[in-house]
């Protein structure tokens, strides 16, 4: 599979861009430890140049993120530049400061949608956000978008307190007019590393994966997207990721191959979720746009080596012997690294847990 990806070539099909590290919340599960803006964040002129380069590289979709992107004064200006260059743009916000004026700014800039984080019902959401009223603000943001005919999506991080709310949460989101819903697992990275008790355990996948597969198979609204750190393979894979396309199963981490992350000071990573200086980690930084152009960083054959130069003998533990090792490549890199410090041995895998529990027989490696 990696040979096929290599043959197709590398281009940043999707990019998640941290406009600022500044944020009006201090969430327990924030992987980037957002709060205070970096002291060297990009100027508007630098950001607009990045917009142009992303388009030249063939980027198809950019998600504007943070921190909290709406705390950046030029979030819609950056989005409009991307849209004018033919790039699809959305954003993800906590919804705290979102109002009709925000929705109108997004629509005028040409955003395809806005997304908000809702991590369970009121008690669960406000707990992980660390402030009362966060749930009501996020729900109000959804209603503002619906009122202004701006498609709205939700991102939910699964953690210990909302684990048993997912089915009911989906029903509520559908009733509010939400178009799509992405679910992902909270990793012990950033602030959540300091709250390890909130992270689910690998055994919880035996409950989560069948539930999400059934919800998706039933055609439940809103349209569900399963995050890259939930899976992999076994009898539920088609239901989790099936799209009707010829290839509709987990193809391994795409960081540095079809995915790019941009930090607010111009640092480039294969995936924005991968840890960096806020977590005293620099191995995933590939360069800075103030030192080299974005194009030069992306096209450097020595960059993103963890994926572009991957071989199965780099895997360890169960992943090394797994029948799906060449395709899966250890699952979500961020999840593996944040849980074990080893990016090539991932305990958060339904197939792995099921085999180790004796619930299924391991597939033979070809």
Describe the structure.
With 366 residues, the protein is α/β, with parallel strands linked by helices. Helices cover 34% and strands 13% of the residues. The chain has 15 helices and 10 strands. The relative contact order is 0.13.
Task: Give short descriptive properties of this protein.
366 residues; globular; ten-stranded mixed sheet
Structural class: alpha/beta
Mean pLDDT: 94
**Uncertain spans:** none
Estimate the global geometry from the Cα principal axes: globular
Major sheet strand order = 7-6-5-4-3-2-1-8-9-10
Supply Rg. 20 Å
Could you spell the SSE succession in H and E letters?
HEHEHEHEHHEHEHEHEEEHHHHHH
- Compute the number of helices: 15
The biggest beta sheet, please? 10 strands, mixed
Distance linking N and C termini: 14 Å
Helix content: 25-40%
Give the strand tally. Answer: 10
Strand content: 5-15%
Secondary-structure topology with pairs:
Layout: H1 2-8, E1 14-18, H2 44-56, E2 61-65, H3 75-84, E3 88-93, H4 100-109, E4 113-117, H5 122-129, H6 134-147, E5 152-158, H7 166-175, E6 180-185, H8 205-217, E7 223-226, H9 237-241, E8 259-262, E9 267-269, E10 285-288, H10 294-299, H11 305-308, H12 317-321, H13 325-328, H14 333-340, H15 350-356
Parallel strand pairs: 1-2, 1-8, 2-3, 3-4, 4-5, 5-6, 6-7
Antiparallel strand pairs: 8-9, 9-10
Helix pairs in contact: 3-4
